[in-house]
Write a structure and sequence with these properties.
globular; Growth Hormone, Chain: A; three-stranded antiparallel beta sheet; single chain; 3 strands; mainly alpha
Length: 224
């Protein structure tokens, strides 16, 4: 008799009985004669309590997400804004002090673009390298060294090698930083912040554009 006025409602992977009284409302059954509703409610609560910690662990806090974003912007600033685009304001100084021809300048710029293309192809062919911390750290160091080493020589051949290597490093770092930071922000539910990552490139360009003339005032192209 206790089953009169009851209907079965589907709950995930189980049937749950609900009371459909004359007032039209539905409630869980807690009566002694029909303990099914009480047992189902306890199971649902148990599943909810177990799922909450895993969800909380997968969500990064605002502070941690912000640090990840700032680190990515700094990496973009070094790899792209300085490592790739700092050569643009330095090139006229090299032509002024060293008499570099437009042909040599064009070759150096072209080699940098070739390196950039080679780095993108490398990441496509060998994507596992992007997960290797030693590899990515080495590429970052290589980008910094290739940039500063430009001022240590006047040999055109070495300039070409350095610009080629710098292009490869810039492409790899651009892909690695973009992938890692956007993935981390997505896990932390802060994906709307990902656009700010590429502001690091603009900061690097602005920084090098302002710093090069100041250094040139105290020395020559090599100091810049």
């Amino acid at each position: 008799m206790c089953l009169i006025g009851l209907k079965v409602q589907r709950w995930p992977d189980r049937a749950v009985l609900q009371d459909t009284g004359t007032n039209g409302s539905e409630s869980w059954l807690d009566s002694a004669c029909c303990p099914i509703g009480r047992i189902s409610r306890e199971r649902v609560k148990s599943q909810t309590m177990h799922s909450e910690p895993s969800q909380q662990q997968s969500v990064l806090g605002d502070r941690q997400a912000l640090w990840i974003l700032l680190g990515g912007m700094l990496g973009m600033m070094v790899a792209m804004g300085i490592g790739r685009f700092a050569f643009t304001p330095i090139l006229p100084l090299m032509q002024r002090d060293l008499g570099m021809s437009n042909t040599v300048a064009g070759w150096l710029a072209g080699l940098n673009y070739v390196g950039y293309l080679a780095g993108a192809i490398l990441c496509t062919v060998c994507p596992r390298l992007l997960r290797c911390r030693f590899f990515t750290a080495s590429i970052l160091v290589l980008s910094i060294v290739s940039t500063f080493a430009m001022g240590l020589t006047t040999a055109v051949a070495w300039w070409g090698v350095l610009r080629l290597v710098g292009g490869v490093a810039s492409a790899v770092l651009f892909i690695v930083i973009s992938a890692e930071v956007t993935e981390s922000l997505l896990r932390s539910r802060r994906s709307r912040w990902s656009g700010a990552l590429y502001g690091g490139i603009g900061l690097g360009i602005a920084f090098s554009g302002l710093l090069v003339p100041l250094l040139d005032a105290f020395g020559d192209w090599a100091l810049a």
